[in-house]
Design goal:
Blueprint (H helix, E strand, L loop, with lengths): L5 H12 L3 H22 L1 E4 L3 E8 L2 E4 L6 E4 L2 E8 L1 H7 L1
Antiparallel strand pairs: 1-2, 2-5, 3-4
Helix pairs in contact: 1-2
């Protein structure tokens, strides 16, 4: 199977769970919103067997514009990273 689109994912999950596509879409939307809230509040959100979303602070640094070669200042910011669980790594190998 190739890369799943959102509608294909909804179809597969609806078939496997015997839920309607609307129910599956609502569940995924709620799940995503819960993940975002937890990352903001606690700094991480764990999805058992798959991995976890982790909030990281990036320090300010100097970068380079690849087109001109000019050095530029890149401001500090907060980003979200995904760490894959060992079970997911082992399942792929």
């Amino acid at each position: 199977m190739a890369k799943l689109t959102k509608s294909q994912l909804l179809n597969v999950l609806a078939e496997k769970t015997e839920m309607s596509k609307k129910e599956v879409a609502a569940f995924l939307e709620t799940f995503a919103n819960l993940a975002y809230e937890e990352v903001v509040n606690s700094g991480e959100f764990i999805i058992p067997g798959i991995g976890k979303l982790v909030k990281k602070n990036r320090a300010a640094r100097m970068g380079r514009n690849p087109a001109t070669g000019e050095e530029i200042h890149i401001a500090a910011k907060t980003v979200v990273k995904f760490r894959v669980a060992k079970a997911a790594k082992d399942a792929v190998l």
